[in-house]
């Protein structure tokens, strides 16, 4: 290729990278915490009310913040900090003597708003903002900063506010267990197991409830592998509890509530919830599966750390909630919270999706924003996890893996078998994961489970995303080389991916040709993150493309017909659909 051609290719690749990662910088990372100064001004003030939150057992509470400064600026901002003490005394090694002075502030806020969001602030120097806080096990305070995000100076700090019970059990998260008749319940609290015993009380309507003790896990800063997760993004994750509810009856409704038995015998309960047990493998009944990737989180109070980063996350979450009575299980296939090393955001995410996760199993796959970091064992050497290296994701949510460090697993649900791959670990022929994938595909009894589904975060199959077109593979490099023979050999019906932020569906395809016995590949990465571009011309195997936010839904009621729908998050309406038909003799 001539020099001009090389220059053009380099430019095109740079533009493609922008299409994939543009707007992808975590908004909290824009705050130069290491440069922050403390210069409290006696004539500036911040006041937060009410001081006591959640007095009626609420997990969320709206807070009013009033503030004033003698000289207002457009780049002044209010940050929410938790714990409320966020000065130099809380920094690691702050008690050591004889060292070079460290930073004056060493923890990022959990959210922020610009002071000029309050009308008239620039003229009067006075303002009022509303923040929605969630129970995150610690108290809160609000800091008023001048100097913008690049050179922040703390000029005033509010009074402390706290939830009535910061340790309360919150945000239950259901997941399928390792057997079809097991459901797991995971939740977060401030109670160590030495302080209180975590339990789930559960049972069917009309029968005496049972109590199951939960396991408890947590992690420290030392388990994280890089910045900002183990520096300014660190926040204590509390304690994560998981209980295993076994021997469930298929398709039956169960009620449950999470709680902790204190040493004095008193039980602190969470809110009562319910779920429906999974159907047994081969059961012919109505089975509905929602699937998407790249959701992230969004704020409901106008906090701006997620503007242009996860613009549709709230719409998708709300659309799934509205249709929850018609949903049996959800697969979120990677790029989960987009915390990117700011650990407070995991709590924010679990609270956002709690109306879903407390009612139906919420199954995850690992993505680059959970796992990838240099020299950490991930297949890719990027920094997208912000130093998390998969630890928060594997601890905060249960998935039925054999090894929590390897995020691949089998999920059987009635007539479906899901083979969930981990695209952030090597999947190529000869690896441990390749053996798992082949075993998962080969061992399903298609007479009982006719619908065989493959999922991964990155597009290991087909995509006409702009970036993928330049490597010539129309998918992740090396993705199909090892796996396409398996999909064809075991007649995989559909394969789902995230990573690329758009919707696309192929024909039944094999070796880039539409064939009757091929696999339909679907990219459902448009749940929340900024949009990614397509190629100008669609390849012959690309049937439908939509650069909008949305999610997919599978519906099966028998062994011969599987319906798929693509719905936009903005209105929940169906914009693409198709049906897979099978002859009974071929099942």
What does this structure look like?
The protein is globular. It is 14% helix and 31% strand. The chain is built from 9 helices and 33 strands. Strands 23, 24, 25, 26, 27, 28, 29 and 30 form an 8-stranded mixed β-sheet that branches. It has a 6-stranded mixed β-sheet with strand order 22-21-20-31-32-33, with no helix packed on it. Residues 1-23 have low confidence and may be disordered. It is α+β, with helices and mostly antiparallel strands and 587 residues long. Helix 7 (432-442) packs parallel to helix 9 (479-489).
What is the strand content?
25-35%
Name the shape in a single word: globular
Tell me the radius of gyration: 25 Å
Distance between the termini: 51 Å
Largest sheet: 8 strands, mixed
Mean pLDDT: 92
Unreliable runs: 1-23
Number of helices: 9
Helix content: 10-25%
In terms of structural class, how would the helical and strand content be classed?
A: alpha+beta
């Amino acid at each position: 290729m001539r020099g001009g051609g090389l220059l053009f290719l380099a430019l095109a690749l740079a533009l493609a990278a922008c299409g994939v990662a543009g707007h992808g910088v975590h908004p909290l990372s824009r705050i130069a915490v290491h440069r922050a100064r403390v210069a409290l001004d006696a004539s500036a003030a911040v006041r937060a009310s009410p001081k006591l939150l959640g007095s009626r057992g609420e997990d969320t509470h709206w807070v009013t913040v009033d503030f004033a400064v003698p000289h207002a600026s457009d780049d002044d901002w209010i940050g929410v900090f938790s714990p409320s003490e966020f000065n130099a005394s809380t920094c690691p090694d702050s008690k050591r003597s004889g060292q070079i002075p460290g930073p004056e502030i060493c923890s990022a806020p959990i959210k922020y708003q610009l002071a000029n969001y309050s009308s008239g602030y620039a003229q009067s120097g006075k303002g009022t903002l509303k923040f929605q806080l969630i129970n995150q096990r610690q108290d809160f305070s609000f800091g008023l900063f001048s100097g913008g995000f690049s050179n922040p100076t703390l000029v005033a700090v509010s009074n402390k506010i706290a939830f009535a019970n910061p340790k309360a059990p919150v945000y239950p998260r259901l997941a399928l267990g390792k057997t079809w008749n097991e459901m797991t319940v995971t939740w977060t609290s401030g109670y160590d197991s030495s302080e209180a015993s975590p339990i789930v009380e559960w049972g069917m309507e009309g029968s005496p409830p049972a109590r199951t003790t939960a396991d408890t896990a947590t992690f420290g800063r030392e388990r994280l592998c890089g910045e900002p997760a183990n520096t300014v993004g660190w926040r204590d994750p509390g304690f994560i509890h998981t209980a295993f509810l076994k021997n469930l009856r298929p398709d039956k409704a169960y009620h449950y509530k999470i709680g902790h038995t204190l040493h004095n015998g008193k039980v602190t309960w969470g809110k009562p919830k319910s779920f429906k047990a999974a159907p047994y493998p081969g059961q012919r009944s109505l089975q509905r599966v929602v699937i998407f990737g790249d959701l992230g989180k969004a704020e409901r109070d106008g906090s701006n750390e997620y503007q242009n980063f996860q613009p549709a996350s709230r719409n998708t979450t709300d659309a799934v909630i509205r249709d929850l009575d018609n949903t049996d299980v959800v697969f979120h296939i990677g790029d989960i919270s987009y915390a990117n090393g700011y650990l407070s955001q995991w709590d924010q995410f679990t609270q956002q999706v709690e109306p879903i996760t407390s009612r139906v199993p919420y199954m995850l796959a690992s993505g680059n924003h959970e796992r990838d970091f240099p020299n950490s064992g991930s297949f890719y050497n990027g920094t997208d996890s912000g130093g998390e290296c998969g630890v928060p994701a594997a601890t905060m949510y249960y998935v039925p893996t054999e090894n929590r460090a390897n995020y691949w697993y089998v999920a059987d649900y009635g007539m479906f078998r899901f083979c969930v791959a981990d695209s952030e670990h090597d999947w190529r022929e000869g690896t441990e994961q390749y053996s798992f994938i082949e075993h998962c595909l080969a061992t399903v009894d298609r007479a009982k489970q006719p619908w065989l589904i493959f999922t991964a975060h990155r597009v290991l199959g087909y995509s006409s995303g702009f970036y993928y077109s330049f490597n010539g593979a129309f998918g992740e490099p090396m993705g199909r080389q090892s796996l396409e023979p398996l999909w064809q050999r075991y007649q995989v019906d559909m394969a789902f991916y995230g990573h690329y932020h758009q919707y696309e569906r192929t024909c039944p395809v094999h070796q880039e040709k539409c064939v009757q016995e091929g696999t339909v590949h679907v990219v459902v990465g448009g749940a929340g993150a900024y949009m990614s571009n397509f190629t100008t011309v669609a390849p012959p195997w690309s049937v439908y493309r939509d650069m909008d936010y949305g999610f997919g839904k599978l519906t099966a009621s028998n062994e011969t017909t599987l319906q798929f729908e693509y719905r936009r998050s903005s209105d929940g309406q169906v914009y693409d659909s198709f049906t897979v038909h099978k002859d009974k003799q071929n099942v």
